[in-house]
Every structure is written in structure tokens, then in C-alpha cells.
User: Fold these one by one.
Assistant:
Number 1:
Amino acid sequence: MPAPSPPASAAKPAPAAGPVGRSDAASTAPAAGALRMVQAPIPFPDSRKQEMAAYSLRHYGTASWQLTPTMVVLHYTAGGTAASTRNVFSADTPNAGELPGTCAHFVVDKDGTVYQLVPTTVRCRHTIGLNDQAIGIEMVQEAGPSSSWADQQILGRPAQIGAALALVRQLQSTYAIATGNVVGHATANSTPQFHDLTGARNDHTDWLPADLAVFRSRL
Ligand SMILES: [Zn+2]
């Protein structure tokens, strides 16, 4: 893999100024940064819940918008900012000809701030084949020359990767999610849990297998 190598045993205590956040899941990892969480909910009225239920019926065979998370999918934004990403997810505009619009539950900014956009009990449309099972986490990152390069930028950015790891650790603790069920968007099609009645497949390359392996090794 090209690009700057992240400190393998990273012990960077996020320089962070007094986050009020919780650090529940910080028992093991030396790199655990405090989790600085900001609630920034996007509009998710009944109409959008019904769109999600109808999407679920078409793609998964059951009409539900409710989520009991058993997986986490990692993404990056391929541009924009936390605010612009939130705006896109708020808009509820059709994607690939279908409603609801895309969204993710969390956005992790480059400075380590974690924005929660959607409750983890509500399905978001972020990964074909896994939206009925998975929490989606976006990380702010421009696309750059390659997906590997983009993944590496995040892995080499202590505040952001520390926050992403702390968030995932907390979700693993809350929902008993095994590290093997923390996957990348790029690896979603090959997970055993993948299913889609319409035959749709992901064509995104965020969080390639090698970079996902690094992320998992730091959990
Ligand atoms: Zn993605």
C-alpha cells in the first residue's frame, strides 16, 4: 500500500480539548480517543420511515424501517464536509431511482468530532444488501487518486481515526458486534450477510480489504 504509514501501535492520546464525551469502550486499546459526540439529527419523518419500509420490502422481503444492528459498515465521503454530507442525507432525494435518499448514522469529521445523524434503531440506506442489519459510518475524506490512498489518509489522521475506532468500539460493546462484522463498503458484497432480492450490488470501493484489516487490527 502506498502512502504514509500510520503509527502501528499508535499511542496518540487525542490532543483533544476536554471532550465531554464518554469513553465507555476504552478499556483495552492504547489509542482510544475520547468520543466527542454531537447530536445532529437529519429529518426522518414518518414519510421517510415508510419509504424505508417499502425499500426494505422490495430488497429484503420485509417491510420495516426499524434496525437492530448486527454489523457496522465503514465509508468515506469522497469529498465535502461534515455539514455538506449532512445536507445531502437530509434531502431525501431518490438514489438510483428509489426513495428514500441515502444516509448514514454517523459522520466522523477530520478533527475527530462525531456527528450522529440518525438513531441506531432506524435503518439508513448506505450499503446495498446490508441496510437491514448495519449501522453506517461515514468519514470525511476527499476521493484523491485512489480508494487505497483515501483509506490511508484516514488511517494516518490520529484525531479522526481515533474517534472512528472509539465509536466502533462503543457500538460493538452496545450491540455485541464482533470485529468480523465490522466491514468496509468495498467488502459488503462478499459478506455472508449480504442479500438483495433485486440483484443489486455495491459498486463502491471505500474501505478496501487491506485497509479494513488495519482498521480491525486497531479495534
Ligand atoms: Zn460507502
Note: Residues 158-175 form the longest helix (18 residues).
Number 2:
Amino acid sequence: MGNSIRHAVVTGATQGIGLEASRALLDLGWRVTLVGRNPSALERVCADLANPTRISTRVADLSSLCQTNDLANQLLDQGEPIHALINNAGAYFHPRQTTSEGVEATWALNHLAPFGLTRAVKPLLRAASSPGEPARVVVVSSNAHSMAKIPPLEDLEFAQGYGAMQAYARSKLANVLFVREQARRWEQEGAGDISINAVHPGVVGTRFFRDNGFFGWFWRTLLDRVAITPAEGAKGLVRLATDPALASVTGKYFSRETEKQPAKLALDDALARQVYEASAKRWQEVLEA
Ligand SMILES: NC(=O)c1ccc[n+]([C@@H]2O[C@H](COP(=O)([O-])OP(=O)(O)OC[C@H]3O[C@@H](n4cnc5c(N)ncnc54)[C@H](OP(=O)(O)O)[C@@H]3O)[C@@H](O)[C@H]2O)c1
């Protein structure tokens, strides 16, 4: 990477943890591509951030696999190496929703989008890597992954028995399984010059849960009692993207800035493989429809 300016792509950059991670990276001298679904929110955020010359924006609703794929293609066409991809956008859906592509929304946004975007932009990540300085992928998971029960592989999208918290927990478990499996695959195929890790940002005082009726209000009220600020919550993401001490760490789970053992289910390599394959198949089904 030498002394050249580093480039990060941050999803969910219009508010909360993603916005603060973007701000911190800009303060460190990075160039940041902010990804959001709402053009006017992106405009507002750009006006608020310092260093406008180092910001660009991309619009994509990441609950749509086609839009996520378009985003990846736009980034590939642009050709700018990506030193850090921060998959942060996420939400909680109560009641169950399906996207226009027929995918359960939590699974689409929280898991399939980071899964597909990361895989698609691999050439740009590799282009940013240099010996001892891997490009980094960060997947924002949650401690809630530990609440997930063994997922039935034939019903990953809860056609049966949807519960918003279980769907959220399952998507966040899938994030941790994904980084383990992707790290293993990249090592195996000689692309170990990219690192990928999952992070629980902490319990953070953002708008998360707010627009989800009574249950959202309940969770938000409970969490706000112990929440840290979005800037504090962003620290774990930023450390994983930038800290030279973590250059060789891959396939791991962090709670805020500290590496932690994830829940037992998240260490199940066979499950990681099965969920990875099911996710690749789901992507293919949607893109070919
Ligand atoms: N807050 C916590 O306590 C906590 C704890 C553990 C993990 N997390 C995780 O941290 C991440 C960030 O959450 P947050 O607390 O910062 O929440 P937030 O304030 O609600 O921000 C979520 C971000 O994701 C974006 N987003 C939502 N749906 C999207 C879509 N369909 N397409 C593209 N972007 C979309 C939002 O865009 P808009 O501005 O357009 O809505 C926003 O920028 C999530 O993955 C969440 O699961 C949060």
C-alpha cells in the first residue's frame, strides 16, 4: 500500500455506527465510499462530514440482491482498489417481510448482501493488498448471534415459525460462520492476502430497532439504558480495518476491540460450509430469475 491513500467502502454509512466509522476513517486520512439506499440521506451526510474531496457515494438498497450486485459491478467498473470493505448495513424486521425478489428481508440484508458483495469485489481487495498488509473485510455481526438455534438448512428464511429476534440472531450467526468459511476458502485458494473478521460493535445508542412497533420500542428502551455512543461503537470496526497489529488475523470474531470466542454454533465448520453453499445457491437463484 506504501504511502498512497487508502480506500474504504462502508455500507450503512448514512447514520449510526457506519456513519461514525466513516468519519473516523476520513479523520485517519482514508478515502471513503459511503453506501446508502437513500440519495438525500447520503447528500445530507456528505454535507456534514469534513474532507468532502475524499468522499464518494453509491446508492443501493442492500436488501435487494440485484442492487447489491449492481453496486459490486459499479465498484469493479470504477476499478479503485479497496483496502477495507466494511459490511455494516443491517436491520431488524418485525413482522416478517420479503423483498421484491422473494427473499426474507433479514436474511437478504444482514447476511446475503455482505456475503455477495464481499465475494464480488474480491479482485479490488486483492488489488489493494501488499505483503504483510492485507486488504480487510469487516462484517458487523452482533452478540445476538449467540441466541440463534441450529438453523434448518431447508428453511433459512423462516417460511415457518418466523420470530424477528430469531431471524436477526440467525443472520448474525451467519455473519460469523461466513467469515470463518471465507477465510478458510481464501487461504486455500491462495487469496490469504485478504483478511476477513466479524465484530460485535457493542450495545450502541443508534436508531436500530426504532421503527419496529412495540417490540422495537421495547428493545430500544432496554438497550438505551446501557448503550455506548455510535462513535464508541465504531471503534471495533475501525480497529479491524486499520490496526497493523491485526494484519494477520482472519476468520475471527471480535467483541468491540477484543477478539473473543463466538458461540459454539458459530464454530461449527460443517455448518459454516453448508450455510455458505446455501447462500451461494440463493444468490444464483435470484440473479438468474
Ligand atoms: N446498535 C446496536 O446496539 C447494535 C448491536 C449489535 C450489532 N449492531 C449492528 O450494527 C450495524 C449498524 O447498526 P446501527 O446500530 O448503526 O443501526 P442504524 O443506526 O439503524 O443504521 C443502520 C444503517 O444501515 C442502513 N440500511 C438499513 N437498511 C438498508 C438497506 N435496505 N439498504 C442499504 N442500507 C440499509 C441504514 O440506512 P438508512 O439511513 O437509509 O436507514 C443505516 O445507514 C447493523 O448491522 C446492526 O445489526 C448494532
Note: The two ends are 40 Å apart (CA to CA).
